[in-house]
Structure formats: structure tokens, C-alpha cells
Amino acid sequence: MNDTDPADGPLLESRGVQVEFVARSGHAARALDSVDVSVRRGEVLAIVGESGSGKTTLARTLVGLQRPTTGEVLLEGRPLVYSTRGLRRLRSRVQMVLQDASASLNPRQTVYESVAEGIRLHKRVASDVQGRNEGQLVAAALAEAGLRPPERLFLRYPHELSGGQKQRVLIAGALALRPELILADEPVSSLDASIRGEILALLLKLREELGMGVVVVTHDLGLAWNIADRIAVMYLGRVVECGTTEEVLTAPKHPYTQALLSVVPEIEHLEPVVLTGEVPDPSRIPTGCRFHPRCPALADGSAESVGVAQACRAEPLEVLPATGDHRAACHLARVLSTTERVG
Q1: Domain boundaries, the chain
Q2: How do residues 12-62 score in pLDDT, each as one tens digit?
Q3: Exposure of 286 by Cβ count < 10 A (0-12 exposed, 13-18 middle, 19+ buried)?
Q4: Nearest Cα to Cα of residue 245 among 226, 264, 260
Q5: Model confidence, pTM
Q6: Strand pairing of 12-22 and 70-75?
Q7: Which of 105, 216, 283, 323 is most buried per CB count within 10 Å?
């Protein structure tokens, strides 16, 4: 008998998740490659990486929109069931806020209808402990998303809203279901600086007031610095560095993380590192370290100086665990960490 309280473990996690897409040519592109991540209640996790790193595919897999080729997604330690009932149960507790609010909102639906859709699907009126009707639940969700007075927006259509208002309507639609976790895919990438701050403040407020966990998918380490408790850095379908936000951003171990961090405007003491080339084709993942064709440490001789250059090119690296200490999947980082411990 297992006496472990589910509340003590991760709310949502992936174990060895792999996702492959087969092209018409027959080549399999591996969008995710043995990914382990986890998020607890009330925690803010940032999944960071360039376009093509697999972060959005991971988010879609965590909410059941994409089924893993191998591996599994677990909700409170139980494997996700991909039946209609199982997915509905998941989405009553875990909601995703998509990246493009303009494309996500139905242009023919009013704000009221957009928010009420989930309430009706999940029969939230019948289960509301305060006895609120549908209109009251919609108004409460809009108000919590920062749209006040909510009734003034009920009959508006998406084309009548600003970018920030559209993003808040998407968040309100998620909040209406009272989820335990929200996955936000690039929630502020298309917004100007002032609205970005408001949306980030809103996500933090939801965590503080409702105890809601948040997973933020972003390419922006500056955003992660301002909002996240932990960070998972992804490259070419795999997590290459993970740890607390302070650990990862004040002492990055992986050359890829260092390069991403060097171009964050708020970080002035680092010399900008410009990565050459693009993220490789996921159907042709490089041997050894998947980052080695673009790695500055290999290009400038740092890896050669400590004797790991050949390993970088040929020896595969371990899969990082979902929890634990600050770790990086990097031959150079492993040698340097060992040297520091001995010294």
C-alpha cells in the first residue's frame, strides 16, 4: 500500500516522453527525445529555448493535445488516459493558454461566449459551491483576469479588443474552470512592453491568490527571471539544463544557456554570444552532444583544452531528471564541476 500523499508529489509530469512525426519522405523527425519534467502545485516552471527546441510540443503533450510516441504523462502520479473522459478530466484541472490570442479566439463569438464555452462543456454551473449562474461565473473569470467591469465586455467581439484584452480573455476562459495548473505558451510575445508586465503580474497574482501552478513556455530568459521558480532549458527536443531560476541564470553551466543569457538586455556584465547556424533538422540529430555543431566552447578550443572535444562530438549525454540539483547535459560542464569540487 502506498501511503504517499499525492499532494506532496508533482501535479503534472512527463517521464521519458518522446514524440516523433513522420514526414512524407518516411523520415521520422524527433520533436521530443526522452524528456523528463515535473511541476508542483503553486509552482512556476519556465520551459525555455529557441524556436524548434520542442518546448511547444512538450506543452501540447502535457495537456494531452499530442500523444507521446513513447514515455508517459502523469497527473498526480497516474498515467494520463487518452479517452474523451480522461482528457476532459485532465483539462478540468490543467488548462492551456495558446500563443496567438487573435487566432485562438473565434471571431464569431462574443467575449461572453468564448469564456462560457468551457463552463458549459465541463458543467461548472451545476458544481459551483457558491450557487452562481453562468453569467456570474463568466463575470468572475473576466474580473480575475483583470477585465473590469466585466459586463461591459460581454457582447464585444475579438476585433473590438486590444492585444492585451484578447490575452486576458484567453486567460479568463482558462480561469473559469478553476484549474490547478495553467500552461501559457509565449503569453506575452506579441504584446508591447507595458502590457507584457501586466500579464506577467497577473500570472503571479493568480499563483499567490489561487495557489495555481503555472508553466510558461518562452524563448525569453528575461521573462523567466521575472516569473519562474524553476527553469528547464530545451535544445533540439531535450532538456539540456535545469534547476532553480537563481541557479540557472546566475551560474549557467551549459554553453547554450550561457549564449541565451548573454543577449538578455537586463544582463550587462556578459559579452553577447551569437550562435552560428540554425537548430539542426530533428530528423538528423547530431551524434554526441546535440549542441556541438553550434557550441562556442568547442569552436574556441575550451572543450579541447580540458580533453572533452571528442566526447562532445561522439558520446551521447544522459537524460536529465525532472527534479533534483542544478544539472546540465554537457561534457564540458561535467568536467568543470568535477574540477571545482576537487579544488
Answers
A1: 252-342
A2: 999 999 999 988 877 889 999 999 999 999 999 999 999 989 999 999 999
A3: middle
A4: 226
A5: 0.91
A6: antiparallel
A7: 216
